[in-house]
Amino acid sequence: MKINILAIESSCDETSASMISDGKILNNIVATQSVHEKYGGVVPELASRAHQQHLIPVVHEAIQSSGISKKGLSAVAFTKGPGLMGSLMVGVSFAKSFAFALGLPIIEVNHMQAHILAHFIDDPKPVFPFICLTVSGGHTQLVLVKDFLDMEIIGETSDDAVGEAFDKTAKLLGLPYPGGPLIDKYATQGNSKAFVFPVSDMPGLDFSFSGIKTAVLYFLRDSLKENPGFIEQNLADICASVQFTLISMLMQKLKKAAKDYNIKEIAIAGGVSANSGLRNELMATANKLGWNIYIPKMEYCTDNAAMIAIAAHYKYLKGEFCGLDVVPEARLKF
Ligand code: KG4
Ligand code: ZN
């Protein structure tokens, strides 16, 4: 019989379900929560309520469109963490009760590991060991990936995540949440050298992104004092310059990691890996340094259940199930 797994993702503000059969993703249903836009960021209480509304229809659609009946399921997988506690609780509680009712085993998945394992959904797949730069709204990590379930964090941010830096800058510019994709869009029309922002200097392979947020804040305050129309007149240049600075910080540490570990298999993962500037810079560096690079499809960059499903598939093969006493962990580590 085939290994058929239903996977659920509910760590932040996307409610998602996916069906996987023998390691092949059959679908990836995502309901995005628009309720947060007017607040300029994810409101945890509203996120968990929206998950409660979206989860059953999303799971129903994933199962229905897969052509596999509930009786044909082998296991149910879910995101255990890291993420927002209230959001995680909705997915974990649903997965446990659904699996219990059907007498199925359950598989817990680490959201950050799943972002990396999204590279094993389609070809070409990275070869172990590889380095993955995981960049999202909550995390910025350099990970040494030795095997499917054997990963080591070799560098990470000491304060804000890079996605947060994108979103907070966007907010200062008066752009709606999430601002990352909008900065990316405006940056394509701007001059990345128009304004200079400080590049943080952290030891080893660690990052720091809180300084740039403050630098942008003061820069805008001073510029607006002289010219109230400064943002409207320079939006593309500001976006391009901030994006250039953030990408430089990421690339500097990524190059150092590749050199330190003598690895040329390089992957990126997480929401910010959708950024076109980062993708272009990565391709240019790969050409120069002879790296093999792996960039996931757009739909597998931002939060989705297909990545939970592929991670669960490898855990299933190793017999890594958990008990019904499992609870979500907002700060789950590897
Ligand atoms: O991985 P993800 O979907 O959710 C988390 O687990 O955090 O990442 C969301 C983050 C947000 O900060 C969003 O602004 C950022 O990814 N993002 C982008 C782009 N698309 C999404 N940042 C820059 N450029 C983009 N094109
Ligand atoms: Zn994520």
TrEMBL record:
Swiss-Prot/TrEMBL keywords: Acyltransferase, Cytoplasm, Iron, Metal-binding, Transferase, tRNA processing
Q: Which InterPro entries match?
A: ATPase_NBD, Gcp-like_dom, KAE1/TsaD, Peptidase_M22_CS, TsaD
Q: Where does substrate bind?
A: T134, V135, S136, G137, G138, D167, G180, D184, N275
Occurrences of domain Gcp-like (ranges): 24-309
Broadest EC class assigned to this enzyme: transferase
Subcellular location(s): the record lists: Cytoplasm
| Cofactor(s) essential for the protein | Fe(2+)
Record-linked Pfam families: TsaD (PF00814)
User: What's its catalytic activity?
Assistant: L-threonylcarbamoyladenylate + adenosine(37) in tRNA = N(6)-L-threonylcarbamoyladenosine(37) in tRNA + AMP + H(+)
| Molecular functions per Gene Ontology | tRNA N(6)-L-threonylcarbamoyladenine synthase activity
Free-text cofactor note: Binds 1 Fe(2+) ion per subunit.
EC nos: 2.3.1.234
The UniProt record gives the binding positions of Fe cation as: H111, H115, D303
Mind telling me which PANTHER family this protein's record contains?
Answer: TRNA N6-ADENOSINE THREONYLCARBAMOYLTRANSFERASE, TRNA N6-ADENOSINE THREONYLCARBAMOYLTRANSFERASE, MITOCHONDRIAL
- What NCBIfam families does its record include? gcp_kae1, T6A_TsaD_YgjD
Free-text function comment from the UniProt entry: Required for the formation of a threonylcarbamoyl group on adenosine at position 37 (t(6)A37) in tRNAs that read codons beginning with adenine. Is involved in the transfer of the threonylcarbamoyl moiety of threonylcarbamoyl-AMP (TC-AMP) to the N6 group of A37, together with TsaE and TsaB. TsaD likely plays a direct catalytic role in this reaction.
Q: Which family does it belong to?
A: Belongs to the KAE1 / TsaD family.
Report what the protein is called: tRNA N6-adenosine threonylcarbamoyltransferase
Organism, as annotated: Shivajiella indica
